[in-house]
Specification:
Keywords: Aminotransferase, Pyridoxal phosphate, Transferase. The protein has 425 residues and is an alpha/beta fold. The protein has helices at residues 4-14, 48-51, 60-72, 84-96, 111-126, 143-148, 182-196, 223-234, 285-288, 304-319, 322-343, 371-384, 408-423, and strands at residues 27-31, 34-37, 42-45, 103-108, 130-134, 166-169, 202-207, 237-241, 265-268, 279-284, 347-353, 356-361, 386-387, 389-391, 397-400. The strands form three sheets. The chain has a seven-stranded mixed sheet, sandwiched between helices. A four-stranded mixed sheet has the order 1-2-3-13. It binds ligand PLZ.
Length: 425
Amino acid sequence: MPSSDDLGRRRSAVVARGVSSMIPSYVSSAAGGTLTDVDGREWVDFAAGIAVTNVGNSAPKVVAAIKQQVELFTHTCFMITPYEQYVAVCEELAALTPGDFEKRSALFNSGAEAVENAVKIARHATGRQAIVVFDHAYHGRTNLTMALTAKVMPYKQGFGPFAPEIYRVPMSYPFRDGGRSGAEAAAYAIGQIEKHVGASNVAAVLIEPVQGEGGFVVPAAGFLPALAAWSKQAGAVFIADEIQTGFCRTGSWFASEDEGVEPDLITTAKGIAGGLPLAAVTGRAEIMDAVHPGGLGGTYGGNPIACAAALASIETMRELDLAGAARHIESVARPRLEALAAKHPIVGEIRGRGAMLALELVVPGGIEPDAASTAAVAKAAHESGLLLLTCGTYGNVIRLLPPLVISDDELDRGLTLLEQAFSTL
Ligand code: PLZ
């Protein structure tokens, strides 16, 4: 087997520089909460492929379902000759997403594609154009979703012009907005929407219930319900982007459930199919079905192998109670992170829910972001065998996103490596 160094050399000759990797080690296998590289080194996985392998890598049921499907047929295109697996995934989505109303789903390949389609559907259903998004939002890298995403570097720099009719308003970010209550932060955002956009022009309000790439920002209680209520009153579609938070990650099937919010549309991807590319828009039948037949689709959307993997992933989440597992991960990790924060005043805040936890690093005593120390902690973690991601508009947030099937032993080892990484500062 070629070494990571060999592969790195081959890579630089043929792979575009714009696609970068966090570490230069090449994977040979992965299972549960551990990855092994081609040089035989093991890594504790606190990344889960960016919140994708919630059921773990190569989860047994997922592997079996993929093998079975691959022997039957690999692709027909649902728009030409349909198949049961697509319908079954939509049945699961209707049952699992919040809201006891009639729902429809459409399947796609990536999170960005799901978000794009949610915007298309909302515009079509309302006959309006304006889309409201938030500070620190991340919704993807395609042209429309770049416009919806807040951060310029690395996502948008040099890639304009961007799509029109996107309006950004302030997010509830208790650590950085002076501790505004959810109601106050919502009133402020709504005031901006009404003055700068006009309620009757808004097709959709699009928000991550807990922000992902933007820094694992958890809005103050009451913020999401107030925005959902305002959207309803304004005749706008309330869209929850649950691509990172969905499928048990935050300790329930979907993060919207935490405050009893029932979004009109929900976008999902990542955790839905245990690592295979699948994404969905799910929502109120009358909104989804506003679009004419043929108005939504794509060659691969709802590929049968990806659908089989999704059905097996969902079954695994149910059987192993992975929402409970996410809460367990929090119950183990949070006290350790709090002890870490007590020891290192550079940790300004610990936040998140379930297995979506973060530490925001600042100059001690204030809220000035410390991106350099964040990068140093991540580097030390990587050198010691812990896969750890950073995030945040200011690049100063360390995030924990382990697979939900991580063992207590792996979790303990990962947290110990994280503690050791902080002591190198
Ligand atoms: N919406 C909330 O988290 C993907 C992107 C990493 P795709 N997040 C990881 C990167 O640097 O590209 C994401 C998300 C939320 C949408 C997306 C987009 O999902 O499957 O990457 O297109």
